[in-house]
Automatic annotation (TrEMBL):
<dbReference type="InterPro" id="IPR004088">
    <property type="entry name" value="KH_dom_type_1"/>
</dbReference>
<keyword id="KW-0694">RNA-binding</keyword>
<dbReference type="GO" id="GO:0003723">
    <property type="term" value="F:RNA binding"/>
</dbReference>
<dbReference type="InterPro" id="IPR036612">
    <property type="entry name" value="KH_dom_type_1_sf"/>
</dbReference>
<protein>
    <recommendedName>
        <fullName>Ribonuclease Y</fullName>
        <ecNumber>3.1.-.-</ecNumber>
    </recommendedName>
</protein>
<dbReference type="GO" id="GO:0006402">
    <property type="term" value="P:mRNA catabolic process"/>
</dbReference>
<feature type="coiled-coil region">
    <location>
        <begin position="85"/>
        <end position="137"/>
    </location>
</feature>
<dbReference type="GO" id="GO:0016787">
    <property type="term" value="F:hydrolase activity"/>
</dbReference>
<keyword id="KW-0812">Transmembrane</keyword>
<dbReference type="InterPro" id="IPR022711">
    <property type="entry name" value="RNase_Y_N"/>
</dbReference>
<comment type="function">
    <text>Endoribonuclease that initiates mRNA decay.</text>
</comment>
<keyword id="KW-0378">Hydrolase</keyword>
<dbReference type="GO" id="GO:0004521">
    <property type="term" value="F:RNA endonuclease activity"/>
</dbReference>
<dbReference type="Pfam" id="PF12072">
    <property type="entry name" value="RNase_Y_N"/>
</dbReference>
<dbReference type="InterPro" id="IPR006675">
    <property type="entry name" value="HDIG_dom"/>
</dbReference>
<comment type="similarity">
    <text>Belongs to the RNase Y family.</text>
</comment>
<dbReference type="InterPro" id="IPR006674">
    <property type="entry name" value="HD_domain"/>
</dbReference>
Amino acid sequence: MADVLFIILAALAGLGGGAALAGFFIKNKNAKLEEETKERVKSMLREAEITAESIKKDRILEAKEKFLKMKADFDEEMSNKKNIIITNENKVKQLQQQVSKEQELVKRKEAELDSKKENLTAQLHAVQVKKEELDRITNQRIADLEKIAGLTREEAKEQLVNMLTEEAQSKASSQIKDILDEAKLTATKQAKKIVLDTIQRTATEHAVENCVSVFNIESDDIKGKIIGREGRNIRALEAATGVEIVVDDTPEAIIISGFDPVRREIARLSLHRLVQDGRIHPARIEEVVAKTEKNIEEEIVEIGERTCIDLGIHGLHPELIKMVGRMRFRSSYGQNLLQHSREVAKLAATMAAEMGLNAKLAKRAGLLHDIGKVWPEEQELPHAILGMELAKRYKEHPEICNAIGAHHDEIEMTSMISPIVQASDAISGSRPGARREIMDSYIKRLKELEELALGFDGVNKCFAMQAGRELRILVDADHVDDQTASKLSFDISQKIEKEMQYPGQIKITVIREMRAVNYAR
């Protein structure tokens, strides 16, 4: 309202009033506004003072409450610490009392030990006196015995030691014999059971191969075509195959001679194809032989794969499969190598299964044990070591490698599969009719057996019996007693095992005969 009035007066002043009237009204308005502002400020100051007083009282109350709480906590903490100190002081007093008691106990023990020490010293002195007296009496008696026996103490001791040594050796030899007999009885029964079960479950045919093959023809008229003009066809066939072709008076047969079975088989198949075709001349012969060689290589791989499938052997390296196929055309002492290896694989697997070992590894090792014999390159290594190196090259299991290398004792056996493969090889090779040895090597082996036994003291005569599988030894009854005879048999068997190689086993029989001879005149 005042503002409106002010505006009206200003308007009037502007229309015709004087400036003094306008200034009067403005002055009155400012004074009034200043008065109102002062009143408002005073009111605000009074409110602020009231609020500040209230806040001050609240803060004082809060500070007093906090102080009282801190004082109560401090009093409680001090009370707890005081209780702990009192407890610790009580424990210290108890420990001091216990230490005092233990010190008194230690003093009593030390006094007792001193007393016992004095007693022991006295007893030791008495014992020493008695020992000196006994030594004197003993020396006196020894001197008396030496005078009576006529021997010094050292000589008597030596005789006693010799006597006890002989008695101990006699008893030990007797006990060793009993232990060996019992062990042989038990081991022989178990071994025979495993071997018999294995052989019964393995029926493998074996055939002795010769170094010749026979090619049958329908009529002798074909022989002329095979020979050719001035024998040129025969010469071409021999040059291409590396065998000897014998055409003689044998009716309806041509003999193919050669030590390599693969070459003989190539020559036989080539002749068969040439006779069927009817065209027999040097160029055709070379063509047919080359084709036959390729077919034989394929057949070798097929034989190896079929053998692995039949035996359930998987994952064999292709080169090893090829070598397994080559075994079909190799022989060892007249025994077909593939048939022998298949038989060894089956025997080894059966033995391993009976003994709770890994039959698959044993079968694999048995198949590959003679793989070194079919390596085409000439090597100076024994076939067992060469086979082991080939198996290592083609990543075979270490136990298989060891079994291959150790089946003729060229290296030490480190796996249970190795002796199983060795035993299976011996079983397969020592069957009657399985192998055929050259007469010279056979006679040489028998002589070496007899000479080895004759080298022992007390042996008078020695005879190799039953194709070298039994050695009968006659000893001097005056120099060899029963116990020595048993030991002699054992020593000879050990030396044969170390120094000789043989199939199967050799029985050593020592015969001691006592003869009493008198004459009636």
